[in-house]
Amino acid sequence: MIVSTKGRYALRMMTDLATRQGSASLREIAQAQDIPFKYAESIMSLLVRAGFVESARGKNGGYRLTRPPEAYTLAEVLRETETSLAASDCTGRKEADCPRAATCPTLPVWRALDQTVNEFLSGYTIVDLMG
Amino acid sequence: MIVSTKGRYALRMMTDLATRQGSASLREIAQAQDIPFKYAESIMSLLVRAGFVESARGKNGGYRLTRPPEAYTLAEVLRETETSLAASDCTGRKEADCPRAATCPTLPVWRALDQTVNEFLSGYTIVDLMG
DNA sequence: TATAATTCCTATCGCAAAGATAGGAATTTA
DNA sequence: TAAATTCCTATCTTTGCGATAGGAATTATA
Question: Does pLDDT of A126 surpass 80?
Answer without folding.
Answer: yes
